[in-house]
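User: I'll paste a sequence; please echo it back and then give the predicted structure.

Assistant: Echoing your sequence first, then the prediction.
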Amino acid sequence: MIGYVIAVSLSCLVGIAELVSRYRDRPTTLVRVPSTWVYVLINGAAGAGSLLLLHTFDWRFGVKSPEVVGATQVLVASLGSMMVFRSAVFTVRVGDEDVAVGPSTLLTSLLAAADRGVDRMQAKTRANEAGDIMQGISFAKAQLALPTYCLGLLQNVSAEDQAALRTAVDALAGSDMTDGQKALNLGLLLMNVAGPDVLKAAVETLRAEISTEPALTGAA
């Protein structure tokens, strides 16, 4: 029984890690989205099912010790279910895209449902937070300083994420939007990487230098 608990737990943790990595700015929102629970539970069920098959066919993988064989079966069931459910039997060309057909199709569909659920739940909150944090901020003054400062505050942003952020900011700078609209979108981009709390702290620190209004100076 303990083996099943461990196998299910490990498989569920993999599903949770995948979801958290997709919503780094506010991962707690996932708790309120039903499709995320379905995704995690399917991962857990896959681990339990794999272990049941190993017990049914008594696959020992060459291990003789009864104590070691139990641990081996749990690890194989957990890792095996992760690989099987993320595999594709074949790929079909649909229009301009390659669509994988296999167990991964189910997980991809559930991830898409989780994406839509989280996006709908976070949209209003993110709009309000971005508006409040970026109020009075000039995009022209903040487009270099604010992203650089946010990335400096964070220690584990990958090079790929940093490059993607710079590309998105450059695209904003070249758009025809007003300065205020660009500032709001800059806030949303940085919230995706740093989260609202870090962004708010960074803006407050730099506000005197990136504000649309000139900083007030004391009388001489």
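The longest helix spans residues 103-133. The longest strand covers residues 90-94.
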